[in-house]
UniProtKB/TrEMBL annotation:
The keyword Aminoacyl-tRNA synthetase does not apply. This is Guanine nucleotide exchange factor synembryn-like protein. Keywords: Chaperone, Guanine-nucleotide releasing factor. It comes from Dichotomopilus funicola. Belongs to the synembryn family. GO terms for biological process: G protein-coupled receptor signaling pathway. One of its GO terms (cellular component) is cytoplasm. Residues 398-424 are annotated as: Disordered. Pfam families: Ric8. GO terms for molecular function: G-protein alpha-subunit binding; guanyl-nucleotide exchange factor activity. It comes from the Eukaryota.
């Protein structure tokens, strides 16, 4: 089709809308002519310049009637494409569409067993969740919006069940429809938080999709639909029996967690700082959510697992908490998944990602300050504990060893059974692995200055309330292990 520009384009757009308006009053156009006219409007509407009539209330009303009142699926979909483009390009048109009162018909059309209708209607409703007064609770309660979204997810889960680890060659529109459905699910649950219970039955389908989709591309592990599935998972209420049964199936309690750990490992190896901050933060939050709601060892929900090591909680601890390999050096320096997480915890370019990691490690430590320090070292833990006004017991700052290092054995600790190798509580490194530079011995005066500096630092730390321990320098002075230099000592040192 020849594309006009400038005033000629404006005149053409106006004529097409006039012809379509007349056709609504008294059908005069043949089906093919009607569809050609809508296709031409779609092309012209991609650039709002000199296409203003499309973006008016009259233009939107004409398009909406063809989209929802036409007996022809082809005509309806052609009109929907123009509508979606229009609402995407100019925000003010979204409220105009909502004011026309077609939301109920949109929800009804979303039930069609058609990938194309699912794609177009999901996108249309999604766009109306931005900057309008659309009544999502009413659509959930009276128009079965939640039930329809869940039914569409079910169709995708059945479609993808049993797929081989090879690229999906199915209808590309099906994949696009799944992406729009997941975006819609995220927005509706985000803006209608009081109605999360209506989406409880979505958990089995989300879990199934995450677990059975072919492995992601190593170069973009969180590309759709993986990232979208994770976002929706975080939005929902995972505390219900339906959610727990879907997330931790009795026969394969770690199936979903294994896939998410794979995505995390690939993401940390692939994405740059900006991508980690924007895309991977939600994935880390997902692990905190799963750990919180996973069956605890010995609980009725977790009683059917063969051994404690098979539980979701212990898999998360053993995989994400620092291991003996990490403790050969200062924590965060090894090339392991826990060390990569620790390095990003303190990355100034990923503040939200870092906070999510800190909360995850605290959760994996069962929110115990002592275990938290044991697991990650006081060097990492101190900032988090201070920011969250959590006091550190004195025992957390002593060198740790034995099975107490890491999470407690009762929690399925990642590092239980380590023997009696003591660990530096600040760095998390095994004490017998520490190496120090071969520096000349400090003079007595240097030792005194260092003792004074440490005394001041500990006093300042005590005043913050972060730790409640006695100043070790004061203790050493009281026990006679530190003595003030006499003038004779200074003179002797000067002679040396």
């Amino acid at each position: 089709m020849a594309q006009l520009t400038g005033p000629a384009k404006l005149a053409a757009v106006q004529k097409i809308l006039d012809d379509l308006a007349k056709d609504l009053e008294s059908p005069v156009l043949k089906p093919q002519e009607r569809d050609v006219a809508l296709e031409q409007l779609k092309l012209y509407g991609r650039n709002p310049s000199y296409a203003e009539p499309i973006f008016t209330k009259r233009g939107l009303e004409i398009l909406t009637k063809f989209a929802f009142d036409s007996a022809s699926d082809t005509t309806s979909r052609n009109a929907l494409r123009v509508l979606c483009n229009t609402l995407f390009l100019q925000e003010q048109t979204r409220q105009v569409f909502v004011s026309l009162g077609y939301e109920a018909k949109a929800c009804l059309k979303l039930r069609n067993d058609s990938w194309e209708d699912e794609f177009l209607i999901s996108r249309l409703i999604l766009l109306t969740t931005y900057g309008t007064n659309i009544d999502l609770p009413t659509l959930i309660e009276n128009e079965q919006l939640a039930d329809t979204i869940i039914q569409n997810l079910s169709r995708h889960a059945k479609r993808l069940a049993g797929t081989k680890p090879a690229p999906n060659t199915a209808d590309p529109m099906a994949g696009m429809a799944l992406e729009e459905t997941l975006k819609l699910l995220f927005n509706v649950t985000n803006f209608a938080k009081d109605h999360l219970s209506a989406f409880d039955r979505a958990f089995p389908h989300i879990s199934s999709l995450l677990s059975t989709l072919p492995p992601p591309q190593a170069s973009a592990p969180l590309d759709p639909p993986f990232g979208l599935l994770i976002n929706t998972l975080v939005n929902l209420d995972a505390s219900t029996p339906t959610a727990r049964a879907a997330l931790f199936p009795v026969d394969k309690p770690t199936l979903l967690i294994d896939r998410l750990l794979q995505l995390l490992d690939l993401s940390l190896k692939t994405y740059n700082d900006t991508e980690l901050e924007q895309s991977v933060t939600q994935l880390v939050c997902t692990f905190s959510l799963l750990y919180e709601h996973a069956p605890k060892p010995g609980s009725p929900a977790g009683a059917d697992t063969d051994t404690e090591k098979d539980t979701a909680r212990t898999v998360l601890q053993k995989t994400l908490l620092p291991t003996e390999q990490d403790r050969v050096t200062v924590l965060g320096r090894a090339d392991t998944l826990p060390s990569r997480l620790l390095r990003n915890w303190t990355n100034p370019l990923t503040p939200n990602f870092g906070r999510a990691i800190a909360h995850l490690f605290f959760d994996l430590s069962d929110k115990s300050p002592v275990r938290f320090v044991e697991n990650v070292g006081y060097g990492y833990a101190s900032g988090f504990l201070f920011e969250n006004n959590i006091n550190v017991p004195e025992e957390a700052l002593r060198a740790q060893g034995g099975s107490g290092q890491g999470s407690s054995s009762s929690a399925g600790g990642a590092n239980a059974g380590r023997g009696r190798r003591e660990v530096n509580p600040i760095t998390g490194q095994f004490l017998d692995e520490e190496r120090f530079a071969d520096l000349p011995e400090m003079t007595m005066e240097e030792k005194e200055r260092e003792a004074e500096r440490l005394f001041v630092l500990f006093e300042r730390l005590r005043q913050t309330g972060v730790v409640d321990v006695e100043n070790p320098v004061a203790t050493a002075m009281r026990e006679g292990r530190i003595q003030e230099l006499s003038d004779d000592d200074d003179a002797a040192e000067d002679l040396d």
